[in-house]
Amino acid sequence: MRANTKPVTSGGRIFKNPVLEALTKTHISIPLTLFWSAGAITLWYSIAELGIHWGTATIFFLGGIALFTLVEYLMHRFLYHIPARTEKSKRFQYVIHGVHHDHPRDKARLAMPPLLSIVLATLFISLFRALMGAEGYAFGGGFLFGYSTYLLAHYAVHIYKSPKNFLGVIWKHHNLHHYVNDGGAFGVSSPFWDYIFGTMPKEPRRKEAAKVDLL
Ligand SMILES: [Zn+2]
Ligand SMILES: [Zn+2]
After folding, report:
1. 80 CB-near residues (< 8 Å, 6+ apart)
2. What is the CA(120)–ligand 2 centre distance, in A?
3. Is residue 61 part of a domain?
4. Number of structural domains, the chain?
5. Which of 45, 53, 136, 175 is least surrounded by CB atoms within 10 angstroms?
6. Long-range pairs of 115-121 with CB within 8 A, sequence gap ≥ 24
7. Distance of CA 85 from the midpoint of ligand 1 (Å)
8. What confidence score (pLDDT) does residue 212 get?
9. 200 Cβ partners below 8 Å, 6+ apart?
10. Nearest ligand atom owner, CA of 8
């Protein structure tokens, strides 16, 4: 468990090799543009080109967003925080996620490198297409739209001050994970799956997280 209260603003270094190091950095606008557009295009394609009724396409699109929130939770809980015992597995955990916990405000490392995310996006769309037929495109589009929205939420939590409205719950929840208890609060876009799977940290830790001011 890590419980830093002081946010770290420097970026750190993952690889000695400058090419590999450069590949770990991504400007947030790239995946946001890429995956929101992909979401909108697949929805348009499903309705205009594949002739799927807009109501059906929208339901599949929303289903894709919902599945993404679950995948986001499971990946963060079981892959990003994989228990690491050997040096190799510790290194793996550090590269995929530990570096983010050490440098949570490093703007260049708040999204996966686009090359990797494009490959994963193609695999997911192909999988949904194989499982659901033509409706799989709209479902996959929703999934990518969900990913993009998650990226924006995560970026905003680390870079901007918490807003004084209902969205503040997203800030509070992720601060809880970073600065109070990284063994819980795995959902980033919402606390929903933490309530479902019982990984919602108990009070008064939640109150401590609300006091953390990142800026
Ligand atoms: Zn974070
Ligand atoms: Zn984490």
Report:
1. 93, 96, 97
2. 20
3. yes
4. 1
5. 53
6. 115/23, 117/31, 117/34, 117/35, 117/147, 118/34, 121/35, 121/38, 121/147
7. 23
8. 60
9. 184, 185, 191, 194
10. 1
One-letter amino acid for residue 68 of the chain: F
pLDDT digits (tens, 9 = 90+) for 158-186: 999 999 999 999 999 999 999 888 899 99
pTM across the whole model: 0.83
Dist. CA 111–CA 107, nearest whole Å: 9
CA 119 to chain centre: 16
In a domain, 153, yes or no: yes
Q: Is residue 214 part of a domain?
A: no
Please tell me which residue, 61 or 25, carries the higher pLDDT value: 61
Pick the range with the lowest mean pLDDT from 56-65, 105-114, 176-185, 200-209: 200-209
Q: Is residue 80, in this structure, part of any structural domain at all?
A: yes
The H-assigned helical ranges of 24-134 are: 29-44, 54-74, 87-93, 99-102, 114-132
Q: Position of tokens 């050997």?
A: 86
Query: How far is residue 26's CA from residue 13's CA, in Å, rounded to a whole number?
Result: 14
Domain span at residue 96 reads 26-161
Specify whether the CB–CB gap between 161 and 215 falls below 8 A. yes
Residue written as token pair 């394609």 = 45
